[in-house]
Every structure is written in structure tokens, then in C-alpha cells.
Amino acid sequence: MFYGRNQELKIIYDWIFLQKARLISVLGLSGIGKTTLVKRFVDLNSKSFDVLMWKSLRFPQRLNLLLTEIFNNFSPGNDSVSLSEETWRKFFDILRQNKCLIIFDDVHNIFTEKQFAGQYQSEYRDYKTFLKMMTEIEHQSCLILISQEKSQEMKSLNEELYPIKVLELTGLYETELLNNQSLENPESWSTLIKLYEGNPLYLENIADLIQDVFQGDVLSFVEQDELILTEDLKEIFNSLFDKLSKVEQKIIVEMTQQDQEFSIETLKEHLSLSSTDLINGLQSLSRRYILQITPQNKKMFRLSPVFQEYFKQGNNFHQ
Ligand SMILES: Nc1ncnc2c1ncn2[C@@H]1O[C@H](COP(=O)(O)OP(=O)(O)OP(=O)(O)O)[C@@H](O)[C@H]1O
Ligand SMILES: [Mg+2]
After folding, report:
1. Would the CB of 33 count as within 6 Å of ligand 1?
2. Which ligand is nearest to the CA of 36?
3. 216 with 99, same domain?
4. Residues with Cβ < 8 Å from 47, sequence gap 6 or more?
């Protein structure tokens, strides 16, 4: 089942078919619906492409092996190709002669853990050059990157015909999401969705819990007035926290201990970090979609309430 996201589908469509974007990044937290959205786009539009390639980088591979796989789709029999001028010429000839849609999912796995967001692991540094070439060289194809982390190459400018686009997914506030979850009290569903920030994965998890413990009674669950975290959700946050750099962990710990919104100035007062570290740390956290700018006051930051709750319950600090 796929619900909502009509606007996002239209945006991707316009970028590819009207604005001829060559590199699109679909970014956001784990479980927010990135893979599902791009799959839906592919299902709806597959006929408009000559070639479709979906490659998961959950277990990333070196770029030359990935290119070899791509070549073998066209003419089988290539052993591992090298990243030579000849290979690139052949590759971009393919992208010029055919309208290809290439998708790399789970791109965050090529980035280094325990450093600021979007830093390439040394064996995957070729990808950085590759992404630049995708946008600088003329062709009629498009590469969609799906990632939980934003890198320097995934940037957007307002210019309409700029070939690089970024779609940052936020929560999905559609009550239909809960339709097939055997839940009762539909009038409370939107409260539940708000509580879990419209993250479909969190909601699937919580729906299971409500079925098991509350016999599907959503009203009783939301009346508890408490954000409950399942073991699965804690696991997601544990691994997210473990991936952060020390600077980011320090900022997060400070933000959760005070349980409020923060400005750069207050964080500076509370933390023994240089201004450079603090500001780079904040940028990195926002490139992972953990940090949010408060809608009321654009100078203040806050953490996602679900993530904050995870810390309040003392699930952190096993660093
Ligand atoms: N628009 C949608 N309609 C219905 N279900 C959705 C929608 N978006 C996401 N989901 C459901 O939410 C779950 C998480 O979605 P998905 O796997 O796409 O997230 P993701 O952003 O790719 O996460 P990750 O970064 O961990 O890969 C899936 O089980 C999916 O079925
Ligand atoms: Mg995914």
C-alpha cells in the first residue's frame, strides 16, 4: 500500500522530465519513506525510461565493480573494469544514448562513521568524483541517491535548470497509513501520527504494540500521555547515536539534559567546544535530520521529540 506523497511524486517528475535534473537526492531519517517513495515513482514512470537500474548500497561495493555490473547489463562479459578515461567515455555514452534512471539506495553506507556527516570512506572516495561527473557531463539520464545523510555533493540551488536537486522528506501525516493495522478509534489516529512525527516506520512499530497490548485501542494508548518506545525503535536510535562523531554526541547529550530548545549561544555557554566544532557539529546533525530548526524561532534548534524521549529514558551513553 502506498499513501500520500503526491506532491513529492510530482516534484520528482518535474525535476526529471521538465528540468532535466541529472542528480536527485532523496534524503531523510530512517523509516520516513524514502525507498517507498522512489519505488512508487519508478512503478508509475518506468515506461518513460529506456533503462532502469536499482542498486542497493546496504553492503556497498567499490565503484569500479558497480560500473562493471552496469556495463554487463548492456553487454555481458566484462570482468572488473578500471576507472579509466575509456570506461567513463563508455559509461557516459550509454547515458547519452539511452534515457536511464539509475537509483542508488542506502548511500549513507559509503560514509564514515564517528565523523561528521557525509564524509566518504576512503575506499568509496571515487563516488564523490562520480557524482560530480554525473552533473557536469551532458547526458539525458538521471541518478537518484537515497540516503539518511547528506553529503557535500547533495546540494540544491534555487535555479530552475541547475541539474542537482534535493528532496528532504518530512513526516507523512495521512491517517490512511494506519488503515491495515487492525486498529480502532480512527478519531485518535491523527494524534498518534503526530506523536510519532509521521514516521511510517515508527508508526508500524507502535501499531504492532497497540495491537499486542491494547487490543488495537488507540484511544487508550494516546490517553497515557506518554511517548512509548519499542525495543525496535530503541535499536534504531542506538545505532544512529553510535554513528555520530564525539562532537555531535556531546551536543545531543547537552540538548537532552536540558530538555528545551537551544540557540547557538546557549550551547556555547554549556559546552566546552570550540565555535568551529560546535557549528560544524550542528551542521552535521542537521545533515542527518536529527536536529530541527524550531518553526517559531529560526535561531533555535531542537531534537526530534521521539529521539529526545529515547535519551530521557536513559538509553544513551554506552559510548
Ligand atoms: N507513502 C507510504 N505509504 C505507505 N507506507 C509507507 C509509505 N512510506 C513509507 N511507508 C512504510 O514505512 C516503512 C519505512 O519506509 P521506507 O523503508 O521507505 O523508509 P526509508 O526512509 O527508506 O528508511 P531507511 O533509511 O531505513 O531505508 C515501510 O515499511 C513502508 O512500507
Ligand atoms: Mg530505505
Report:
1. yes
2. 1
3. no
4. none
Is residue 100 domain-resident? yes
Polymer length of the chain: 319
Do residues 63 and 36 share a domain?
Answer: yes
C-alpha cell of residue 304: 526530534
What's the CA-to-centroid distance between 216 and ligand 2, angstroms?
A: 27
**Contact criterion met (CB below 8 Å) for 308 and 244:** no
Would you state the torsion angle of the CA atoms of residues 28, 31, 33, 38, taken in this order, to the nearest 10 degrees? 80
Distance from the Cα of residue 275 to its chain's centroid: 27
Residue to substitute in 2, 107, 180, 201 for testing ligand 1 pocket (most ligand atoms within 8 angstroms of CB) = 201
Strands (E), the chain: 23-27, 51-56, 100-105, 142-147, 164-168, 262-263, 291-293, 300-303
Give me the pLDDT at residue 116, please: 96
CATH of the domain at 63: 3.40.50.300
Helices (H), 62-142: 63-74, 85-97, 126-136
User: Pairing state of beta strands 164-168 and 262-263?
Assistant: unpaired
Mean pLDDT of each 10-residue bin along the chain, 319 residues long: 95 96 96 98 97 96 93 84 91 95 97 96 96 94 97 83 92 92 92 95 96 94 89 92 95 82 88 93 94 79 87 63
Ion ligand 2 residue ranges (Cβ < 5 Å)? 35
